[in-house]
Amino acid sequence: MAGQKLQKNTVAVVTGGGSGIGAAIAQKLAELGASLAVCGRTQETLERTANAITKAGGRALTVECDVTDVGSVEAAAVRISKEFGRVDVLVNNAGIGAFSQPLIKMEPAEWDAVMNTNLRGVFYCIRAFAPGMIKAGGGHIINLSSLAGKNPMANGAAYAASKWGLNGLSYSVAEELRGSNVRVSVVCPGSVDTDLSPHEGKNKSKMLQPDDVAHAVAMLVTQAPQSFVSELLIRPTQKP
Predict the structure, then answer these.
(1) Buried-state track 97-126, b at ≥16 Cβ within 10 A, e below 16
(2) Where are the domains of the chain?
(3) Tell me, which fold does domain 11-234 have in CATH?
(4) Tens digit of each residue's pLDDT (9 = 90 or more) over 94-112
(5) Taking a C-beta distance cutoff of 8 angstroms, is the pair 173, 141 a contact?
(6) Is 124 a catalytic residue?
């Protein structure tokens, strides 16, 4: 992948781009030549990501956006369209975890928060940005899932359910959009060393790092145009 770049004038949107995996993905896409719209709920963290991109010579717009609010997502799409004129890459990274208790002890409000962020938010973003990709003749949608969407996860049932649902959404919308040259992929990492993942009993030095996920996203968006990878599973070399 060394030396590969995105096409000139490529515009990428990354949700949850203020920290962790999202920030790493935004910076990697900027290195590949994309202009970035970095979206999230906290302006301070968004500014840190944007500043890192601009200091490296890239272009970044910060957009406060709550993916659980359809109006917020639609307003973000309008603002990004006015700023850049197009969106070529959408990375649905925003997500929250819930790993502290069995399902029978979970409050319905916490269940709703997980589902609204991890699954409903992806629907809102695809709904807002995919029509522009179709009109432009193509694009990339990359949904950040988890190995918890492939395997059972005790004390994380709601999170796992949201990611199993996200995988099903991704595979299905990929079929809906492939005829329009919009490639949809899902990335399923194992435990990544961020504030989201449960770290108890794990060796953080052996865990995946945000840059490992960013590298996978870079591979997806620089594929030859006649193919797409529908799913990537990422595991650490050594079990943490």
Answers:
(1) bbbeeeeeebeeeebeebbbbbbbbbbbbb
(2) 11-234
(3) Rossmann fold (3.40.50)
(4) 999 888 889 999 999 999 9
(5) yes
(6) no
Closest by alpha carbon to 15, among 147, 132, 118, 156? Answer: 118
Q: Which of 159, 160, 182, 220 is catalytic?
A: 159
Cα-flanking dihedrals φ and ψ of residue 80, to 5°?
A: -65, -40
Amino acid residing at 83: E
Question: Global pTM?
Answer: 0.94
Count helices and strands in the chain by DSSP H and E runs: 7, 7
- Report the amino acid identity of residue 91: V
Condensed to tens digits (0 to 9), the pLDDT of residues 9-59 reads 999 999 999 999 999 999 999 999 999 999 999 999 999 999 999 999 999
What tokens does 234 get? Answer: 């990422």
Quote the CA–CA distance of 15 and 239 in Å, as a whole number: 29
Structure tokens at 197: 């993942």
| One-letter amino acid of 114 | V
